[in-house]
Amino acid sequence: MISHRDRNAQRISALDERAEVLRLKRGMGIADARAMHPSIDIVEADPEADRRLLEGLADWCDRYTPLVALDGADGLFLDVTGCTHLFGGERTMLDEILTRFFHQGFDVRAGLAATPGAAWAAARFCGDRIVAGGEEEALLAPLPLAALRIEPEIRASLESVGLRTAGAVMAAPRAPLARRFGATLLLRLDQALGRLDEAVSPRLPVAPLSVERHLSEPIMLTADIERLVSLLARALKSDLERRGEGARMLALLLFRVDGAVSRIAVGTSRPLREPVLIQKLFHERLAALEQDIDAGYGFDLVRLSVLSAAAFDMQQADLAGEAEDSDADIALFADRIRARLGEAAVLRPVVVESHLPERAVTTVPFSEAPQRRAPPRQRNTPPATVFPPERPIRLFRSPEPIEVPATEMPEGPPMNFRWRRALYRVARAEGPERIAPEWWRRQPGEEEAPTRDYFRIEDSDGRRYWLYRQGLYGASEVPPRWFMHGVFA
Amino acid sequence: MAMTAVARETVFALRRQIAKIEGTLPERLAAPAGTRPDARADTDASGIAPERTPEITILRRGVAVASPDAFLRTGVERLDTALSGGLPKAALSEIHGLETRDAGAVAGFALSLTSLILRQEPHLPVLWIGTSEIFREAGFPYARGLHGLFGIEPEQLLFSEAPKLVDALWIAEEAARMTALAAVILEIRGCPQRLDLTATRRLHARAQNAGRPVLLLRQAGEAEPTAAPVRLIVSAAPSASRDTIAGPLAGSIGRPAFTVSIGKSRTALPGQFTLEWNPNEHAFEERTENPVAVVPASGRRTHPAPASGAVLAFPTVGSFAAGDQPSRPQRPAHISPRRAG
């Protein structure tokens, strides 16, 4: 028995068959129930877990139709329009769904109708019924008002005027009903009867293309999955060719026998349709996920869907049959690395207009980087400065504090410094190069960052470093601090 | 006479073919010095007088048969001859730094080589793979600095940061077989167990097949068995002062300078070189003198600046076919016969 808290009282929110035999009911207070049967076992409700379970079921229902929507806390809508013939008709399909849920240990009510409203009512009030198109009125008429999916307040007020069944409401004149009980009632009624269209908004975006394979014998081995992926990719290729597109994002869905669904997504840097390449990408992804995918008793349905596609520009291969396209090679290489090691595994630097060294270059993942321009050899723009400031070849992610015991001049370079517990003697120094903070980027309440004076330093062994002093001597109470920011060649 | 010449040609061609197939077989061609101009300065690298007799056996190992464009010429005559033509282009090359703090110099030297490679392949990108550890310890490559110093455009750079060494090696192996990359730089720290002879052999084989160089930077690494034909040990050298119209500017820090020593090479004996990178011309220059006392002249020069002091005449030991200068670091070896004579 599961309890939940409702208006300051613990009440029964769900109960099993044995508890029902004891004449306990939903909504009954826990105190009353305990008084009746002191030995009952009560568990606190966990709506989050229920939600997760429902989403897991929704994932599993993906095998019947891509359009699966959650309905409240305890229902699922499956838009099976055009899917039923794949499973041998409406009746067979409904039976199969019910049987499979039963084997997974769920007690499920299902209804099938031409409108979501009628199906909802059929599932909740008739149980396992298929309503043919046009029979909605006959189905709803004898049902109580709750079958209309209306608010409890409206239901209560309808019942107070003697309208107790849906049929009675249907028979009543519409205008007074709308005036008295609001538009929602008539909307729900019209939706259930099919006079108004109701769209079921799917939980997940529907893939524009997908191919799948049902397996009579579940597969477990990664090698088998990969082989299936290449089979599916081959089937996908003709579809993509017909649409003139290539896949930018692919997902592999593995439906396990016991209901768990694994979803493996792979992104590509440029539109892709070649089965071998798709298989290679999934090979890396599966290798990376080896530990995470639990095959259990095996997968009985494997689906490959294209989540997003983009126009595929055909390229003429040269007469040797091989187009010289090094960019494509690199894109594919980057995709494989990303598939195995994550989005940020291949980075490309992008130069930003800023004089703060750490902001002047950012790195972006390869897929987001702007496409490489044509050889940037021709220089029309004149050099910005005659002597561009010298910049280190390596920059520390965050400047590392160093200890500077003494400087020759207050504003000058250090004579020696201690970095990472080692003492360095400064042989030569150049500088300072003053870099002020970017005041135009400062947030209103923020404190102004101190200016930095950068020095190029060569130590006694010939290594060259880039140090800076943050702040000025005498400018504030806090003495300036020194940092190591980069290394020169 | 003509018959013998033709016969000799044939024998040479056959031997060459055999050596090419066998790869590492010592090539003991008794060719006269005139027919083989590239065989000239090998004696130079050996340096030490008592080992002069078996010189050909030590030094000619398979490399003589490779074509000259299989090598990346550093542009420094002495280093190129010591490596018998330059750094092998289609191979794994190791560049070691003795300490992590040398990472700047090691990376700088590797990037200078990359810059030389990019001269021939100007539009291909360069991939730099590193473990998270080394990027954290030694700093992340800074595209602006790379552009300013080595002329590598930011669009040409690809970085890959791998959380673990295994991943870095995997990326490197995948990248090494690609012909669409101008060069692959793999940077790691220390001497991990993973990067053993087998791993380097795999990298080397892939680099050979693709015909692209793979530079393995090992910061704070010891010399370990490796399949790479060449191992260079790089550390920073004090730079020369900046050149101005009025002469060198005292106390200033000029061009980057590196001390390069050959740790392993099939063809060369250990030697040490001080190279200076010219960021304007993107070329190496060798510095043969004390950086503070003598300032190297700018531009390409064929003759090094004259050393201070009087030049004494004495016979050089051995024969230098092309009349090369004897190498400086090996002076002490030459001193003893000098004094004796």
Structural features, described:
The complex is a heterodimer of chains A (489) and B (341). Chain A has 14 helices and 19 strands. Chain A folds into four domains: 2-45, 3-Layer(aba) Sandwich (MutS, DNA mismatch repair protein, domain I), CATH 3.40.1170; 48-193, no CATH class; 209-316 and 325-340, DNA polymerase, Y-family, little finger domain (Dna Ligase, domain 1, 2-Layer Sandwich), CATH 3.30.1490.100; 394-487, no CATH class. The N and C termini of chain A lie far apart (72 Å). Mean pLDDT of chain A is 84; it is low at 374-378. Chain A has helices at residues 17-21, 30-36, 47-61, 90-103, 116-126, 136-140, 152-160, 166-171, 174-181, 183-193, 222-243, 275-288, 326-341, 357-360; strands spanning 2-6, 9-14, 43-44, 68-71, 75-78, 111-112, 129-130, 209-219, 245-256, 261-272, 299-311, 346-351, 361-365, 394-402, 416-419, 422-435, 452-459, 464-470, 481-487. In chain A, helix 9 (174-181) crosses helix 10 (183-193). Chain A is α+β, with helices and mostly antiparallel strands and 489 residues long. Chain A has a six-stranded antiparallel sheet with strand order 14-19-18-17-16-15, with no helix packed on it. In chain A, strand 6, helix 5 (116-126) and strand 7 form a beta-alpha-beta unit. By secondary structure, chain B is of the alpha/beta class. Chain B folds into two domains: 2-65, no CATH class; 70-286, Rossmann fold (3-Layer(aba) Sandwich), CATH 3.40.50.300. In chain B, the strands form three sheets. Chain B has a nine-stranded mixed sheet, with helices on both faces. Chain B has a two-stranded antiparallel ribbon with strand order 1-2. In chain B, strands 10-11 form a two-stranded antiparallel sheet. Chain B is globular, with a radius of gyration of 21 Å. Chains A and B meet through helix 13, strand 12, strand 14 and strand 16 of A and helix 5, helix 6, strand 5, helix 7 and strand 6 of B.
